[in-house]
Please model this.
Amino acid sequence: MTGLRENNLGSAQECLGQRFQTWRGGEFDLALCPVRGILDRLGDKWTTLILIVLAQRPHRFSEIRRSIPDISKRMLTQTLRDLERDGMITRRVFPTKPPSVEYGLTELGESLLEPVAQLVTWAETSQTKIAMARSAFDAAEASRG
Amino acid sequence: MTGLRENNLGSAQECLGQRFQTWRGGEFDLALCPVRGILDRLGDKWTTLILIVLAQRPHRFSEIRRSIPDISKRMLTQTLRDLERDGMITRRVFPTKPPSVEYGLTELGESLLEPVAQLVTWAETSQTKIAMARSAFDAAEASRG
DNA sequence: TCTTCCTGGTCTAAAATAGAGACCAAGCCT
DNA sequence: AGGCTTGGTCTCTATTTTAGACCAGGAAGA
Model:
């Protein structure tokens, strides 16, 4: 364990708490601190991708790596550990000749899939608009020099 | 512009495409590449927080900074620029004596609030389970030495 | 007038984080 | 023996983030 996981989730940053009590109207209570920690976790580069891969079926370590070619072993290990620690995935070791390890979603992990799916859907439907906005912005910037 | 924004969204990583055609059943088509770029953007440390702040009402640069005390000026500037480029927020400069700049959500930005809200809701309802899972994991790890 | 403060940034240097790839044990196959 | 596999870990380097100094330029105070 060299420097892996000393993610002080939400300790470095002050609780934004009461500031957002009325997030667009009031249905949104305080307690944003832990939420932020979770958002940070989801937000990292690989977490969502790994969840999507595991959503299909349980995968072994190297299988995940093949599904997400540009993740490094180190980051895969670290992200899987964090996910396991948060109760989103299970890790099962089989004492086969070369040992094999299978990762799969827990119920909690499954439940996360729903909001993630919404986000993915939003991303799909919005990508055209975003691409247009980018072009416009870049063009305007270029014309200003 | 020193090193800001050369985010080659989705160029470094190969398109995961057809691999996820059947994300939990089949309703999930290819085209994950651009989606991934968007997810990366949402996933960064500050984007979601800024969106939530702006969801309340438009804010000035320094106001945002006060709402998110631990963001550095540089990251705030950079994140706001990226958000503006993606068409999620508008930037309006007022030629006041000390110049003031107001940032607000666009319609596209507003539309993102919905899936983000779902995620926040999930996070709120799940935080207890996650906390328990962490305790259990840490305890098990400690007992193993 | 001279000093100080405010704004929204930019710049540099240092700290934290991610990535590449060598390495490991242990057992199989040839 | 030699080489291959597995799931990792370790070290070294590259990238990213942070802190904080700095800037222009008007305003208000003295």
Summary: The beta strands of chain A are 59-60, 89-94, 100-105. The helical segments of chain A are 32-43, 47-56, 61-67, 73-85, 107-144. Residues 3, 45, 71-75, 78, 97-99 of chain A lie near DNA strand C (CB under 10 Å from a C1').
